[in-house]
Amino acid sequence: MDALFSAVLGELAARCLSFLVSKYWATPGLSEEEILRRLEWALLRVAVTVEEADGRFITNAAMLRQLHSLRQKMHRGYYLLDKFRYLNCGDGRRKVKHHHHNRSLAMSSASSNPGKHSPPSARLPSTELKLMLDSVLSVVADMHEFVAFLKGYPRMCRQPYSMHLLLEKCMFGRHAEMERTVHFLLQREPPGECNLGVLPIVGQGKVGKTTFVEHVCYDVRVRDHFSQIVFLSGNNKLRTEKLSTLKDGGIIKHKNDTLNEEKILVIVELDGEDGIDDDDAEWRSLFAAARSILPSGSKIIITGRSEQIMNFGTTQALRLNFLSREACWYFFKVLVFGSTSPQDHPKLASLAVKIFEEYYSHTDMYGDFIGPFSNSKNIAGMLRARFSKEHWRNILACVKTNGQKNLRPYCTDAQNIRMENEHYYISRLSNISQFVQVDKHHRIGFDHDQVPKITIGEVMYGRITPKGRFEVVWWTSHLPPYYSYIASCEIVDSDCTHMRKRFSNKRKSMS
User: Fold this and answer.
1) Which residue stretches belong to region Disordered (predicted)?
2) Does this model's pTM top 0.85?
3) Which CATH class is domain 175-320?
């Protein structure tokens, strides 16, 4: 009885405290700077909770959904906070660190001279900021139950890293999807005739399906559960593969001989846009053979772009989407500034926001080439290489030029641009009159001996100026399977790009 009374009393006290905190922080009549300060405080509490949750093995689906909601709210809040703090402040001229002192001076000045206008830091906040603050405060007020349940989940064994190193080495923004997939793999299927679990994973090209599955396979829980992990790729190869060799075919990613019980995880990766038909007898016989050949407790993950593969799942399909703009900004900001606070460099932070906004306003034009994620990481790497306003302004000018250069004069629809262009142009930092023409078609390097020695950064900075067509390493993933994305390029002058566009347009009109 005493324990029940203490629990009820504690719940009432927590709710009263949350109510008083939310009521105090939502006081009307605040300036924009005060709203920004309180929003930052509330977001910091959410960020601490999210980081703590990321370090634990959460298996409850409802907890994962709530964590996903917290993460979305955190990303949106920081995106809006940084836009108002840096993008609207004239290259960061507002002194964020001394806003308490400035606000006190403004209030004393206004009280001594009522007719004098308030400074910009004391102007009324926008409705968007107010709504975001109220929304985040509501999340903070309801978060104590989530935190209480969170303590019941075991911690992950990992070394303490800074946020910069953590995001460089870990998959960003896929925690809920990761835990759901691992939970499916470890869950024992109910006994029956069709007890082979199949999880379809669907997503657009370059959304990160292969990297995601590879990350799942590297999880220690998965490696300790399965005696063997087999990877099969390619539609044609799978269709001609002998059904009896499914168990031992493909690439063996992992083998654990210490387990007493044999359980195999088979990864099936489909190529391109090709899918499988509902009445495809070959595919149905393939999975039927898998059920008879694979030992009990085995699982299959099938990935592809076509939604037709969803029909072969024994559980709800997992859909991987591109990260939201707000989540990409959060990732981009951490990659650029690392452990340094952007508030210590307000002018650079303002330029970073402008570069990000400019790039993501044109990302649909060339997202199909390499993918928006790798492009943003390249830009972040160039910014991080030199903390200089002049250098960052040059990058901003290049990003703007790239957007204008790849926009067809007669086409206003970004989707049409993506379909028609076979290449796109990026301006060189060393010579703004020269562009690197990048082909749409690229290849992925598995063997480091086959990877070119030239990187796109060396070409951009003018350290290397190859003649004719050449291949460059566009981006190398820091995550398994550590692919190197290789593009075919050629350096051309600005006049040549106009001539090639006119010739390409004329050829399209004649065809």
Assistant:
1) 98-124
2) no
3) alpha beta
